Amino acid sequence: MSTPDIRVEKGHAEPEEVAAITALLLARAAARPVEIAPTHGGGRVRAGWRRLEREPGFRAPHSWR
Predict the structure, then answer these.
(1) Which helix H or strand E contains 25, and what residues bound it?
(2) Is there a contact between 28 and 44 (Cβ–Cβ < 8 Å)?
(3) What are phi and psi of 54, to 5 degrees?
(4) pLDDT, greater one: 53 or 8
(5) C-alpha to C-alpha distance for 6 and 39, rounded to whole angstroms
């Protein structure tokens, strides 16, 4: 008996739902990557995240962050 390539961890997926997910994954795998446009900052890209050790330790109690 062979093991399936895709396994549903929670709930129940109908065969049509599994087929739709499989088609989506195959389309994403076959797609060519988008070329990245050159930046004007000398090629350096700013990170989209912040290092926690550089953040101030105190946040106001009314701040939403």
Answers:
(1) helix 15-30
(2) no
(3) -95, -5
(4) 8
(5) 39
